[in-house]
Amino acid sequence: MTTREPTRPLPPLRETVRAHGLSASKALGQNFLFDEQLLDRIAALPGDLDDATVFEVGPGPGGLTRALLRAGARVIAVERDDRCLPLLGELGEAFGGRLTVIADDAMAIDADALAGGPYHIVANLPYNVGTALFTRWLEPAAWPPQWRSLTLMFQQEVAERIVAAVGTPAYGRLSVLAQWRSTARIAMKVHRSAFTPPPKVMSAIVHVVPAEQPAGVDPALLSRLTEKGFGQRRKMLRQSLKGIAGAVEALEAIGIDPTRRAETVSVAEWVALARVLGEAGTG
Asked: What is the pLDDT of residues 117-134, one digit of tens each?
């Protein structure tokens, strides 16, 4: 794998952060990682990034950004914390302009348009927006998506929900959305002590790659079904899905007992339900 060094030596990240007077913002969900070996391991998870485009959310002081640039990537980083912009600007200069920084909220950004072609998403996601961004990236109508992989750090509890199997306590809407046309795995666990300041919970990195999409399924309809079903997970399906026209009849048509609860319905069964409803023109 190619390693790209900066055009001038960079001081250790911890020293740079100290020199700029930066501290992690609780309001922005920030926790900084300074261990460069760990960051290099994270940057290696998508595979060869030489001359690849990477979209990064919330780079903060740029620890993971450094690792991605060292791996040869061209990085588009979206950062809403103005305090970090001078430091990221210096990092871009040190790596020959291979870093583009967008001062904005990632929720307002069209990553596809910025990348202009295939790209990877790699991010230590801020805890307060991580799930919302993840579901957005999983739900495009066009598939395979423009992104080629997602390498994302979450609270370990959220990561376990993403990869959970049907019938387990962690299984839910995120599990279905991540697994029905993608392959998701926990690639690495990160101890809370690796961060500054240490968060109250453990973290884990999820790696997701697109898979073949089942035919005849509308992603928006599947998203709506799972939102309704798992939004009232203690209720029977006939109750939680009653707001979706034809849902109970569709359940019976494919042999799913309407008295079951959402967490007992497999990914394949959710897909079958969305297909039947879509074919019937209901939902």
From this structure: 999 999 988 767 889 999
As assigned by CATH, the class of the 219-280 domain is mainly alpha
pLDDT tens-digit profile of 6-49?
A: 877 788 878 887 887 877 677 766 777 889 999 999 999 999 99
**Spatial distance between the Cα atoms of 171 and 265, rounded to a whole number of angstroms:** 10
Distance CA 31, CA 24 (A): 6
The answer on pLDDT for 265 being more than 60 is yes
> Residue 20, SS3?
coil
C-alpha pair distances (Å), 241 with each of 17, 29, 135, 137, 255: 50, 34, 20, 25, 16
User: Strands, E, within the chain: which ranges?
Assistant: 32-33, 53-57, 74-78, 99-102, 119-124, 147-155, 182-190, 195-196, 203-210
CB atoms within 10 A of CB 8: 9
CA–CA dist 206, 45 (Å, integer): 10
42 contact partners, CB below 8 Å, separation of at least 6:
64, 67, 122, 124, 151, 153, 188, 205
Helix (H) or strand (E) holding 105: none
pLDDT at 197: 79
Domain range 13-210, CATH architecture: 3-Layer(aba) Sandwich (3.40)
Mean pLDDT of the chain: 92
Alpha-carbon span 29 to 25, nearest angstrom: 6
> What are the residue ranges spanned by the domains of the chain?
13-210, 219-280
Omega of the bond leading into 144 within 30 degrees of 0 (cis)? yes
| Whether the predicted pLDDT of 55 surpasses 80 | yes
Which has the closest alpha carbon to 262: 224, 234, 220?
A: 234
Q: Of 121, 247, 131, which is closest to residue 178 (Cα–Cα)?
A: 131
